[in-house]
Design a protein that fits this description.
There is one protein chain. It contains eleven helices and four strands. It has 255 residues and is mainly alpha-helical. The chain folds into two domains: 136 residues, no CATH class; 106 residues, no CATH class. A hairpin with a 5-residue loop joins strand 3 and strand 4. Helix 5 crosses helix 6.
Length: 255
């Protein structure tokens, strides 16, 4: 048995397996990359590998991630690097492909999958891809912020939103770019989308003039005004890109 496990661990990773590993890397908190994580164990079982092998591969992937302020294991392969670049160079296609691979490996009907794959016959393929990719983006952003609102620290996931800094409709290339996302609660997500608040380059809350006009109102003071100049809690990885914040200030923020 020991030899059999070693053989599984030593065999080369395929492109499909790496796509699934990157998919998982994006969906779990950075601090939970270890062989006891149930999600890592689940993927290991799906692809017939050991949890140690999968967790080590995720650490390899972390060393490729340019958004990380600190690096993981550095023994990544050329294929690791190539698949990472493919995944984030064409994320509209690869995110959807990675979710399809999950359904394939799980061997479940669409109705039973946790990702809730819709029936292609009932919806146009473009709508299906959009739904799947948006769901992935939400999981990726929430995981990056450790499932907490970056402004208030709220942890009720039902009230958390993966906010786009540059709106989905305005920049097709960066729709699924994790550095184009913030984890906010529903109220502050709405305020951000409406341009009532924005972020400075040093990640502090800036209030619009319209918002400040309501500073004498208790509700506005309690829920929005008091956060002026507060720095958001930054994620371990995928820190918001300053160029995206600049776009938001110049094109959406009410000033």
């Amino acid at each position: 048995m020991a030899k059999k496990i070693a053989m599984r661990k030593d065999r080369r990773w395929t492109r499909e397996e790496l796509i699934l590993a990157i998919n998982l890397y994006c969906k779990i908190s950075f601090g939970t990359i270890h062989n006891r994580n149930p999600k890592i164990i689940r993927l290991a079982n799906l692809i017939n590998r050991t949890p140690n092998s999968v967790s080590y591969k995720l650490a390899n992937i972390a060393s490729i991630d340019p958004s990380l302020p600190r690096k993981g294991a550095s023994h990544y392969s050329k294929l690791d690097f190539d698949v990472w670049n493919e995944f984030f160079g064409n994320s509209e296609k690869l995110v959807y492909e990675s979710e399809q691979l999950l359904w394939k490996y799980e061997r479940k009907t669409p109705q039973k999958t946790t990702t809730e794959e819709p029936k292609i016959g009932l919806e146009k393929e473009s709508v299906v891809k959009t739904r799947v990719n948006q769901a992935f983006f939400r999981k990726m952003i929430l995981a990056s912020y450790d499932f907490k609102c970056c402004l208030t620290g709220l942890t009720l996931t039902e009230l958390l939103v993966a906010s786009h800094i540059i709106p989905w409709s305005k920049d097709e290339k960066n729709r699924l770019n994790p550095r184009n996302g913030l984890c906010l609660n529903a109220l502050h997500d709405k305020a951000f989308d409406a341009g009532l608040i924005t972020l400075s380059d040093n990640y502090r809350i800036v209030l619009s003039k319209k918002t400040k006009k309501h500073k004498t109102q208790k509700a506005e003071q309690d829920f929005i005004i008091k956060f002026e100049n507060q720095k958001i809690n930054l994620p371990d990885r995928f820190v918001p890109a300053r160029e995206f914040l600049s776009y938001h200030r110049n094109n959406i923020f009410l000033g």
